[in-house]
Amino acid sequence: MIPTREVYWNISNIWLMYVLFCFAAAAFAYGFWRHIRAWGATLPADRAGRVGERLAGFAKYVFGQARIHGLGRPSRLRHIYAGTFHGFFFFGLIILFVGTLVVMAQEDFGLHIMQGTFYLWFQSLALDLAGLFAIVGLCMAMARRLFFKPDRLENTQRELFNAPVLLVILVTGFTIEGLRIAATNDPWAAWSPVGALAAKALAAAIPAEGLRPLHASLWWFHLVTVLALFAALPYTKLRHVFTAPLNIYFRPLDARGAILKPIDLETAESFGVKALDQFSFKSLLDLDACTECGRCQDACPAFASGKPLSPKKVIFDLRDLLHEKRDSEGAIETDAATLVPDLIGENALWACTTCMACMEACPVFIEHVPKIVDMRRYLVMEEGRFPDTMQQSVRSMESRGHPFPGNTMGRLDWCKDLDVRVLAEGESAEYLYWVGCATALNARNHSTARALVNILNEARVDFGILGEAEHCTGDPARRMGNEYLFQTLAQQNIATFESRSVQKIITTCPHCLNSLKNEYSAFGTKYEVVHHSQLLADLVASGRYAPHGDYNASVTFHDSCYLGRYNGVFDEPREVIAARAGTSMIEMERHREASFCCGAGGGRMWMEEPLENRVSNLRARQALETGADVVGVSCPFCMTMLEEAVNAEKGGRDVRVLDIAELLHGPERK
Amino acid sequence: MKIVVCCKAVPGAVTEVAVAQGNVLSYRSQFQSMNECDEYAMEEAIVLKRQMGGEIIALTMGGITTQDILFTAAAKGADKIVRVDAQAQDPRAASIVLAAALKTLGADLILTGTQSRDSLSSFVGVATAQQLDIPFAFAVTAIEKDGDNSIKVRKELGGGRSADVRLPLPALVCIQTGIQPLNYVPPARLMRARQQRPTSLSLADIGLTQDDLASKGYRIASVAPPVRTGQATMIEGTPAEIVSTLLAKMKEVR
After folding, report:
1. Which partner from A560, A611, B144, B220 sits 20 to 30 angstroms from B41, CA to CA?
2. CA B135 from chain center: how many Å?
3. What domain count does chain B have?
4. Is the CB of residue A62 less than 8 Å from the CB of residue A364?
C-alpha cells in the first residue's frame, strides 16, 4: 500500500471553502493594493537594478535572518532569544505553507505528489515538526511579552492578538490531525509524532463516536481562523511578512555615507519633505515594513539621553498618518498635514545626531536618518526655521567658511613651528592633508594634527595642506538640512582641489572623510580619501613608521559614527593603538557597529544640551566603566565632547582622552 | 512710505591682505555677505513697511559680484534692488555716490547700519545725510511714526541712557544692532530671489563722474595682521603639581 492520506477526509461541502477563500483573498488583495498605491510607483535610481546584489542580500537577511539574530555582530546587536523564536516560527510557518501548497497541487491541479516517501518524510514528518517548532517559538515570544518584556516593545492590543491567533491555528491543526489519526487508525501515524501523540490523548478522552463530528467542526473552525488571519494580514503588523522582505530587497546598496542624495537645486520645485506625499517610494515602504521591534529606539543616543526623539515613534507616527491620510484607493491626500511640527515636534527633529545607530539596528533596513534630514531640509530650505545656535553656525559657514561662530584662530596656528608645506595654487603633493575646521580651529585638537604631521614627516610621506584656502566641507550644513550651503561649499572646495591637482586626501575628521569620499563624488570627483587611522595603520604595518618607546596604559576605543558605521573603518584605529607597545585594549559594550554617539553629529555640536543629560556624559560613563586609563578617539568632535564629559564624570580617577595619532606618536611628545 | 536701505557687501575670511596701487586694500576672499549691521536696518525696514505700508528699496554700490547681497535683501522682503556700479573704499567717496543715487531714487526714510565689518569707519551713513542735507540719528533702537511727515526715534546715549528724537522726513537713520531679530533667509527664497534682475545705475545715471570718486585725502599707508594676545597655557600634571604650578604663577603675577 502506498503511504498517503485522504485529503478533506470527513469534510463535506468543500465548495464552501473556496467561497470563504475568495472573500479572504479579496480582503487581502485590497489591503495590499492600497498599500502599494500609497507607496507610489516611482523607484528612485539608487533602488532599481543591481538585482544580483539585492537577491543575495535578500537571501542573507530574509532566509538567513542575519539582522534578526545578529550572530557575528557586537553583543548589543545580537538577539539570540528573539532570533531563535523568530526562526522557529518563520521556518515552521513556511514549511506548513508549502504543505498547504502540496495539498492544493494534489486536489486542485491533479498532481498526485502527496504519497509515498515524500508523503511520509515531508507532508507528515517535516510538517509535524515544523508545527511543533512554530508552537515553541510562539510560546517563547509570548512568554517574553508577558514575563520579561524589554522596554522597547509595546504591548498594544493589536500586538497581543497576533501570536495567540497563530497559536490557536497551530494547536487546532494538531488536534484535527490527532482526531483524524484516532478515527481512521492511520497506519502511518508514527510519521506524524505530534499528531500521533494528540491522537492518543484524544482517543483516551473522547468516545469513539465523538471523534468525527468534533473533527469536522474543528476543521471548519481552523479554516476560518486561517482565512481570517490571511485577510487581516495587510491590516496588522503581520503585513511585515510581505513588506519586510520587500524592504530588504530595496535596501540601500550605496555606501552608507552616500545615503543622503543631493537635491538638484536648478530643477527642484520645492525642497525637502513638508508632507507625507513628498516621501519617496522606499521611505513610505519603510513605514509599512516596520515590525515594531523597537531596536532603533534602544540604540538611539537621543532617546537614551531623554530627548523627545524616538526613531521608533517617528516611524509609528508617520505610518499611522499614512494609514489615516489614504483614500479608499490608496492615494495620499495632497493637503495632508505638515509633518513638522504637527506630527513630529521640532525638538525631536533637531535631537537627531544622524549617528545611524537606528539604521544599523533595524532588522528590516528602515531608513530613519534620511527621513529626518528630509524634514529638516524643508524647515531650513523653505522656511529658514531652525535652532538659533545652529543658525549662527550656518551664518559662520556662509560668511567665514567654518562652522564655529566667533572663532578668530587662523588655520595655520597649529603648525607655525612645524615643517608643513602649504600648497599654493598650481602646487601639489602626493597627499593633501585636509586638516578640517574642528582640528585647525580648536586648540585641543592641534596636538592631534601635530602628532600626525610629525609621523608623516618621519615616515617621509609627501604631503601638503591648504591653509587658509581650506573651508568647511559642508557636512554640518547638509545634516542640518541646508543643502544649498552644502553644495556651495562643496563646489568651492572642489575648485580648490582642482587647482592643486589633488588625488589623495588624508583627513583627521571622519565627517570631512565622509563628505569628501562619499558625498563629493556626486559632483563627479574621484579622490582617494583615507582617514588618518587608515594611513597610520598602513605606515605601521609596512614598517615605514615605528613608534618610539612604550606607553603603558589600558585603552578603550570610541568608534566615531562617521568613521565606523558610516565608513566601516573599525579595525585600523585598533591596529594603530595596538602598534604602540605597552597598550592593552578594553572594549566597551557598545563598540564597533554598536557604538554610541558622542552627541556632536547632525549639527548637534552647535546645540546647547542640558548638563544633566548629555549624550556625551552617557558615553563618558560607558568608557569609564571599562576602567581604562585612556579613552581613544579618532575624531575632533568626539574629542571635544568626550574630553569635557570624561573630565566631568571621572571623579578622582586619572583618565585621559587621546586621539589615536597622539597615542601612536607619544602623548608626551609635542 | 518709501524706505531705502543702504547695504554693503563685506568679505568673509580674507587672505593676502595688502595695500595696493592707489592706496586701497586688496585681499582675497571666497565669501561675501551682507554687512550684519545693515542686515538689522533691512529687518527694521520690513517691520516699518508692515506697519505703514509703502515700498523698500535695497541699495548697494560695488562691482557685479556685490549684487549677491541684493538677492538676500530681496529674499528678506525688499521690493526693488538697486546697485550703483562704482567702486570706492574711501568712505567719503562712498557717501557721495550713495547720496547721488538716493537723490535719483527719492526716499522718505533712509536706513543704514552703524558700521561695516570690514572698514569699521562708522562714517558713511552720517556723511550721506550731510551730503543730502537732511536730518539724521545714529545708533537708533526704535522707530515710530510721528504724524504724517515726521518720525520719532529712540537713540542710544552714553552710559546706557537713551533719548527720543523727532526727525522730519525725509531723514536718515543709522540702525543699532539688535533692533530686530535677524531672520535666516531660507535658501529656497534666496534662489527664487535670484530670478529677478537688479537695477544697475552707472555713475552717469546719477550725475557723477569718476573724478567724484577720487579719494579726498584718505590714504591707507600700510596694513598689519591681527596680533594674537591670548596666551592660555594648559597646566599639566597630577592635581598636586597643577596646584603648585598655579600658585607659583599667581605669585609671579603678583
Report:
1. B220
2. 19
3. 1
4. no
Q: Do A381 and B185 touch (CB under 8 A)?
A: no
* Among chain A residues, CA nearest to B228: A409
Q: How far is B183 from chain A (nearest CA, A)?
A: 8
Chain A nearest C-alpha distance from B191 (Å): 9
pTM above 0.90, yes or no: yes
A425 contacts in B (CB within 8 Å)? none
pLDDT in tens, A57-73: 999 999 999 999 999 99
The mean per-residue pLDDT over the stretch A600-618 comes to 91
Q: Give the residue from A413, A468, A493, A497 with the most B CB atoms within 10 Å of its CB, the best one to mutate.
A: A468
Cα separation of A512 and A455, whole Å?
Answer: 21
Residues of B in contact with A391 (CB under 8 A): 184
DSSP reduced 3-state for A475:
helix
Selecting from B30, B183, B226 the residue whose C-beta is nearest the C-beta of A471 gives B30
Q: Quote the minimal CA–CA distance from A309 to chain B in Å.
A: 25
DSSP labels for A148-194? S--TT----HHHHHHHHHHHHHHHHHHHHHHHHHHHHT-TTGGGSHH
Domains, chain A: 50-249 (1.20.950), 261-383 (1.10.1060), 409-540 (3.40.50), 547-665 (3.40.50)
Structure ipTM = 0.85
Question: Is A655 an interface residue toward B (CB < 8 Å)?
Answer: no
The distance of A386 to chain B (nearest Cα, Å) reads: 9
pLDDT, tens digit, 9 for 90 and up, residues A37-52: 999 878 888 898 899 9
What is the CATH classification number for the domain harbouring B215? 3.40.50.620
Buried b / exposed e along B21-43 (16+ C-beta atoms within 10 A): eeeeeeeebbbbbbbbbbbbbbb
Residues pairing with B163 in the sheet? B155
Asked whether the predicted pLDDT for residue B89 surpasses 90, the reply is: no
- Dump pLDDT digits (tens) for B75-85: 999 999 999 99
CA closest to A388 among chain B residues: B184
CB A553 within 8 A of CB A653: no
Structure confidence at residue A528 (pLDDT): 97
Q: What is the mean pLDDT of residues B119-126?
A: 92
pLDDT at position A62, please? 97
Residues in B 187-216 with any Cβ partner in A closer than 8 A: 187-191
A656 C-beta neighbours (distance < 10 Å), count: 18
**Region A466-478 average pLDDT:** 96
- CA-nearest residue to A386 within chain B is B184
